[in-house]
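ERR on first pass: missing label on line 2. Operator R.T. fixed the label and resubmitted. Corrected input:
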Amino acid sequence: MESEVYSASFDAGLSDGLTADSSTIVVAHELKAPLSLMRQLALSLDYEDDITGAREVGRQIVATSDRALRQVQDLTRIARLDDALFEMEPVNPRIVCDEVVAELWKLFRFNKRELQLDYRNKRHLAVANRQLLYSVVYNFCLNAMNYGGEELPSRVSVYDRQNKIRIDVRDFGPTVPTKVWREIKDGFVKKPVEIAMRPGSSGLGLYIAAKFANYMHSDFGLVRHRDGTSFYIDLPISRQLSLV
Amino acid sequence: MILVVEDDRGWETYYRRILKGHELCFCHDGIAAIMEMDEVKPNLVILDVLLTGPTGFAVLNEMRSYPELAEVPVAIISSVKMKDEMAEQYGVVKVYDKGELMPADVISLAEEYDGKESA
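pass 2 clean. output:
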């Protein structure tokens, strides 16, 4: 049984920048997690005897830092959304998803998670900004990695839905409480601990995804399942090919 | 035996690496932790605060309500800043901020309460 609780364009309510104190705290908390882990991993090298183990630690540090850098980059983009021109163009969602999965598979592996792809779309080009769409899918996947279980892999699906192409990322973790979703939709989660069912996250990734989806005039929402959540973005189909 | 209650698998890898000489058991949420404690009878519990489902404090409350678990030493290692008085109230033996923690801190804890030397 599924219940679709929100499909919003996120026009209103989201803070325009990251200047508010509560937002700063949320961002600081979210970025502290990978920084703390990287520090510990680097320090643990002193306790690693063999070169293979040390290399593995190195790879884990790189994967963790890539994730943190990506979020910093996304936050910078949010600050530039009004000034910079992120052009809309025909984009193949499958290629974008392939690239995200290629970037994230090591991080998933270090977190003992698996990520599957499921492509069913017959129409292949959507209208989006490639960079922003990449970040939306990336943040959905990170969210799934944080909250999915070890037993069932998270899944990225691309399929046609009416006159749009939908990308959704399904996890099998605790579902997002409606209250939390409303908070994300209405503005910013004020305190990290408010996401008690999905701790370790302040909703920053979803905030980033919402801002970018809104910029691209795409629908962004979630489907709550009894055994998890799917976050999705609906993209208009590109008519470019029909003109060729 | 050390029971580590931590939902971030990156941290799990870290603990496994620096506590090689100790028998470790990992739980990724508070409910599993409470259930596991009855089985494994840990010498030490390393507890994160922000967990999937019940928080670390809920786990502590639950533990303290059972006579057989009430005396199990608990160390909190978390990103959440916490006052010492709050930890004392729950009978926590040590509190570490993940941002300031050193591997030697974890190893000392393990040696003090689990009794074996780390590899």
